[in-house]
Write a structure and sequence with these properties.
InterPro entries: Transpos_ISL3, Transposase_DDE, Transposase_Znf. The chain has 518 residues and is α/β, with parallel strands linked by helices. It contains 21 helices and twelve strands. α1 packs across α2, α1 crosses α3 and α16 packs antiparallel against α17. It is elongated.
Length: 518
């Protein structure tokens, strides 16, 4: 059913149009409120006696690609209530129409607020000019700050995690309502006392999903002793993988002996590998000094004081985690390796031709990178004693040992077979980690206690001890469907908002943009 468009329908409700003038760039519309009375802000009594009138100039939504300026003929009323301290007051309009002292209508203010939430300051101001809503970046941020965060219903299942103000220097805390899938609070730091104070004000919380950090565990235990704590499953899988990598690093000497590569011939190394090998020799001297002091009964603190090395370095040496000879770096060919493998299997063995095809797919590397890959691939197909002379890095060995044999080249298969034949404890560590991953995937919580006993006698005993300390939360992670993955996703969104503002946002503005937009 068609309806007639009247001029009054383009202005906020409750007003009638008296005149409209278009001067080319701006449309000026004079309006007057249709109500006969107004409520006194002091005593809430209705007043009908008009004292005087004045004009208010307001910005409104654009019309026909032009800015709109409303001239509101506002009235001043006399309050006749004897007990009211106000003799004269300015008529009030609905909050969804026009706020007192406002220079924009409520519907334009809502658009400005949404622009500020979505884009921040300068980008939103630039976009607003294109929408014929001229507003400065400072005004946009003021509107976002003034409206703040909407109230949230009391949560019963929350996720808590830290996020970086500045990586490795300053951190904050984010708290999410996992049932409603939205963030509800940002805290200025990740101290246990700060998180505890907030959690203590929410006694209805029944489940707290968190990472394996000790501060949040302590805060939840003190503030909500009856709440169920759930460890994050992704972090558990990641920690287990790191534990196996540490086991490989501890076993590098045995791996080199098993592969017959305990002695490296520097004459066969490339220039880059020779630099790495020289660094390895310097590290070995430092490692020998630290290990000799430890065998003499010196504590870590004494070794740090006497040698000048950091506590972390000393701990890594004592744990056997500083024995890699060569470092592995991610190649620019990494996104194209699957395509290169398919081309190689199809018979394309010419490096120049492969490079030209890769350039058509957007590869920006040079010919040398592809030529070196083809040379390494040819050598990889010749599995002989010489191919085992250089031991891969610990990270590469960990990856190969956890990859299916069907996906390995002939040379890689021989390498792993040599390791498995000479380093039996590493095979047991791999089996323990695989059992842990399978336990989480199958949600087999009853296998946790036997797994801990088995793992304590393997190379991943340090990881097993950590699991034993946090056994209840890890058991809940295996059995419960709650996880902290939602919180990790909100942290990614938080980082985007923070970077949009070039890292200059204070906590109130960051919280308003993140939570207000949700």
């Amino acid at each position: 059913m068609s309806r007639t468009l009247h001029p009054s329908t383009i202005v906020p409700p409750g007003f009638r149009v008296e005149s409209a003038v278009d001067d080319g760039a701006v449309t000026i519309i004079t309006v007057r409120h249709t109500g006969k009375s107004s409520s006194c802000p002091g005593c809430a009594a209705d007043a009908e006696r008009v004292d005087s009138r004045y004009s208010r100039r307001l910005a409104d939504l654009p019309l026909g690609g032009r800015q709109v300026r409303l001239i509101v003929v506002a009235r001043r009323f006399r309050c006749d209530a004897p007990s009211c301290p106000r003799a004269i007051f300015t008529e009030r309009f609905g909050k969804d129409v026009l706020a007192p002292w406002a220079r924009r209508t409520a519907r334009l203010e809502s658009i400005v607020h949404c622009l500020g939430l979505a884009l921040g300051g300068r980008p939103a101001a630039s976009f607003a000019r294109r929408l014929m809503v001229p507003v400065s970046n400072d005004t946009l941020l003021r509107v976002v700050r003034r409206r703040g965060c909407p109230p949230f219903p009391a949560p019963t299942v929350v996720g808590i995690d830290d996020w970086a103000w500045k990586r490795n220097q300053r951190y904050g805390t984010i708290i999410c309502d996992l049932e409603r899938r939205r963030p509800i609070r940002l805290l200025p730091d990740r101290e246990s006392a700060t998180a505890q104070a907030w959690l203590a004000g929410q006694p209805q919380i029944a489940v707290v999903a968190r990472d394996r950090g000790g501060s949040y565990s302590l805060a939840a235990s003190k503030a909500l002793p009856s709440a169920l704590q759930v460890a994050d499953r992704w972090h558990l899988m990641e920690n287990a993988s790191h534990a196996f990598l540490d086991a490989v690093r501890k076993s590098m000497r045995q791996i080199r002996a098993a592969m017959g590569a305990a002695i490296i011939n520097p004459e066969l190394l490339t220039a880059a590998e020779r630099l790495q090998y020289e660094g390895y020799l310097r590290r070995e001297d430092i490692n020998a000094t630290i290990l000799a002091r430890a065998r003499g009964g010196a504590s870590i603190k004494e070794i740090v004081r006497d040698t000048g090395h950091s506590r972390g370095l000393v701990r890594r040496v004592l744990r056997g985690q500083r024995s890699d000879v060569f470092r592995s770096r991610e190649s620019s060919l990494e996104p194209y390796l699957e395509w290169l493998d398919a081309q190689w299997q199809a018979g394309a063995r010419n490096g120049c031709e492969l490079w030209r095809r890769l350039k058509c797919q957007g590869f920006r590397g040079c010919l040398r990178v592809v030529s070196e890959w083809t040379a390494r691939r040819r050598r990889a197909e010749k599995a002989d004693a010489d191919s085992l002379r250089r031991v891969p890095s610990a990270r590469t060995i960990a990856r190969l040992m956890t990859t299916g044999r069907d996906n390995l080249t002939k040379s890689e298969t021989v390498t792993i077979a040599a390791i498995e034949g000479g380093v039996a404890p590493l095979i047991e560590a791999r089996a323990v980690i695989n059992a842990f991953h399978a336990m989480i995937r199958k949600r087999a919580g009853e296998e946790l206690a036997p797994w801990i006993e088995r793992a304590k006698s393997s190379l991943v005993t340090s990881f097993a001890k950590g699991v034993a300390k946090d056994k209840s939360a890890i058991g809940a992670a295996i059995a419960s469907h709650w996880s902290n993955g939602q919180t990790e996703g909100q942290i990614t969104k938080l980082k985007l908002v923070k970077r949009q503002m070039y890292g200059r946002a204070k906590l109130d503005l960051l919280e308003a943009r993140l939570i207000g937009a949700g």
